[in-house]
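User: Last request for today: this protein with adenosine-5'-triphosphate, please.
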Amino acid sequence: MALGASIELERVSITLGGNQIVHNVDLSIEAGEFLCLLGPSGCGKSTLLNVIAGFIEAEGKILVGGKPVRGPGIDRGVVFQSTEALFPWLTVQENVEYGLRIRGIPKKERSEAAQHYLRMVGLSHALNRFPKELSGGMRQRAQIARVLVNEPSVVLMDEPFGALDAQTREVLQQEVDRLRRTNQSTFIFVTHDIWEAITLGDRVVTMTAGPRAGIKSIKTIDLPHPRDHADPAAVEVYRELRDGIAVEVDKVLRAQQAA
Ligand SMILES: Nc1ncnc2c1ncn2[C@@H]1O[C@H](COP(=O)(O)OP(=O)(O)OP(=O)(O)O)[C@@H](O)[C@H]1O
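Assistant: Here's the final one, the structure of the complex with adenosine-5'-triphosphate:
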């Protein structure tokens, strides 16, 4: 299993289409940490994740495992929100094996690895199905297995459960919460959902409203796993995060009204 890598962002600013989306972000993420990123819609969460993934260039320093990010790499795996992210012409197992096949891993080894990770996400019964034969939740499980099979040091998740119904979402949150305890990768998980962030995060970073979004707060979630939403300490964390985000959402609404 790959060990997680630390991530350092130093004075990171991101400009897209002539607009500065993110301004001067400094953030240190420890190896093996699970960090959740919350913030109002459009503030730049996905953009920041895409910069760490190496899909978008930025100003400032971005170090993963002490090395500057110069583009996408196998050390960083990305799970997208879209349940369409799998190759529709490949079976579940072939989708999960894909990255290993590209890297020339022999058939027996990649088949065993794919089955191991598919078992981990509860998809052993669906190895030979095609994506269109899966529910949205199953597709996201397959996507997670497809990323984890490469044993990345960093797993970047961009609202992976955003398109799922509430019950499936809760089940997958519990699964990721279990999985990350045996997986030593560093996780950054973008979400709109405050409870999702509290369920999963070692820390929750809240961003300010854009443009020129930055970090508003960093909250350490010092509660035992699995996290109980009825625990008064969790409710207190929820209130604090909700109130902080409400201020930022309000700024977005006022800016929209003024425009
Ligand atoms: N390629 C691009 N060119 C210009 N502007 C862009 C581009 N991609 C994103 N943006 C803008 O950057 C800002 C941040 O977008 P981003 O998707 O990162 O926000 P977000 O916080 O992830 O939003 P959401 O929570 O709604 O997914 C938005 O104002 C968006 O319109």
